[in-house]
Each structure stands twice: as structure tokens, then as C-alpha cells.
Amino acid sequence: MHARRLVAGTLAAGALALSLTGCGDGADTGERLGPKAKATQGTSGPSASPSPPSAAASPSAAPPAGGAADEAYRKWGLTGPLEYAPKPDRKPEIPKAAPGKVPVIDRIPVPAGDKVVFLTFDDGAEKDPEFLKLAADLKLPISMFLTDSVASPDYGHFEKLRDNGSASTINNHTLTHPNLRTLPFEAQKHEICGQQERLEKRFGQRPPLFRPPFGNYNDDTLRAASECGVSSLVLWRVSMQINNFQYAEGSALKPGDIILAHFRGPAELKGSTEIQMTTRMLQRIQEQGYRIGRLEDYL
Question: What is the pLDDT of residue 68?
């Protein structure tokens, strides 16, 4: 499959699904991967010693200070502090979508030397109280994409995650997690607008971002999302499995990568916990010398 461009709005519909299809029934955490995607063994990509936290880190995504920070990192199995990217002075320029459609973004167009990646978690089936503690202790800025059918039994869990001081956000992942490409326009609009309305009613804000289940979309999806008040359709280039990353291209993170993970428990993670999976993901980010940014600061 040909390498995808920075903004996927010019792609043929569903091209992403050929490389990294999220929320499926794969053998690892549920990603079904195309021929170019690969999982690394051990560490993921070139190893690099983590640097101290950036002094310019955004207050909304800053780690705890001093000894408390060291204690928090050790508590959650990290060997050193995470780095957080500051909010940029100017947001990167995203090419505009065609009239009546939303832009499709699978990597943020940051400068080549800006080693920043973004954390996104999908679905909402797992609601581990320990994950709330981890995210709060480490001040992880997570962009959540919630599906009503699995998240709504305890939306309060995700409200706590949003309100823990890490500037995490809640976004749309449809009502029931269908393959939108198989649905007509009105059915797609129901799935997207319906979840917009439920999230607005529950959390007090209409989400700006939308992610289609499995990464599958078509022109009807882009039109429906626009009519539902979505500003961007967000895909990904990298997914977190149980132990390591899987890449749509190459074998290492790239500046601006949007990382896909899931709210999943031991049944889906072959006995591993959401905490263990997340800790490994953060270790892989550290090993490659990347900082963590807040996706909404760049969109």
C-alpha cells in the first residue's frame, strides 16, 4: 500500500483500514493490520535516553514537580520522567476539506525535528479505577474517543479522567461502533449525530473530533460528520498492542504521530492489564526520545 499523506482527506475512502484497522478482532489488542504494519520486539524503534521534563511544558499537561514526580514515575513502572510538549504558539496548518465535508487527519504536520506524539484511547469498555490514578499521577493528556454502547454504563469514569487535571478530552466514536462504510448516509448520520447529542447532554460540550470505527469511512461519513458539527475526522499511524507499537509504515515513531490505544482489560489483552499496556506504551515513547502533546492544542 502506498504511504499515506499527512492529511488523509485526499485518500481513497478507507485506505487506512488496509494498514491499521482499530477496534477489530485481531490476535493482539484488536487491531487488524495490513502487510506494511509491523510490531517490534522488545523496544520499539531506536532507543534513546529520556531527557528531563521540558521547562516550557504546558501547565495543562505538565508532570508533577520535584520528588513527587520521581515517586509517581517509579510507582507506575517508569525509569524516568515523561516529557510533555508545550501548547504551540500557532497551530499547524491543516489543509481544508472540500465544502460540506470534514478534513481527515492521521498525523499532525509538526516540524520534522519536533519529536511530539499524541495519545488517543478508543471505545470505553474497560473502566479500571487504577487507570484513573495513573493518568492523574502522570498528568497524561488523553484524547478519548468513546462509543456509547460500551462507555455509557459508567460515563462517570471518563468524566473523572477528563477532570483529573491532565487536560484530557472526550470525543465521538459513534453510538454502536458499526463499520460506517456499510451504512447509507442517514444511518451514518444517526450514529455520529446521535453520539454528539448524548455526549453533549452528559458532559456539557459537543465534541469537536470524531473517529470512525475500524478507521473505515467514505464520502458519506465526511458529509455526515460535517452536518453533525464535527471539525475533524481523526485517524492514526501507530497503534499500541499488548507490548509494543505497530506501525503503518517504517519501524519507529515519527514527529506528529497520533497513537491509537484502547480502554481494554485482561480479557482482550491476554491477561495484561490496562495499566501494564499503558506503562509499556509510555516506555516505548521514552525509549525513542519523544514528548507527549495534547492533540486538541494542535487542531
Answer: 66
Question: What pLDDT is attached to residue 67?
Answer: 64
For the chain, the domain total comes to: 1
**pLDDT given for residue 79 in this prediction:** 87
Q: Which H or E element spans position 283? A: helix 274-287
The whole domain housing 160 covers 8-298
For residues 231 and 206, give the distance between their C-alpha atoms in angstroms, rounded to a whole number: 11
Contact 122, 29 (CB under 8 A): no
For residue 92, count other CB atoms closer than 10 A to its CB: 15
Region for residue 288 given its phi and psi (left: phi exceeds 0; alpha: psi -120 to 50; beta: otherwise): alpha
Question: Is residue 135, in this structure, part of any structural domain at all?
Answer: yes
Closest CA to 263 of 166, 137, 132: 132
pLDDT < 70 positions in the chain: 1-69
Please list, residue by residue across 129-163, b when 16 or more beta carbons sit within 10 angstroms of its beta carbon and e when fewer do.
Answer: eebeebbbbbbbbbbbbbbbbbbbeebebbebbbe
8 Å CB contact between 299 and 94: yes
Residue-level pLDDT at 71: 84
Check which CATH number belongs to the domain holding 126 and give it: 3.20.20.370
Residues 6+ apart with CB under 8 A from 183: 191, 220
Cα pseudo-dihedral 155, 125, 107, 62, rounded to 10: 60
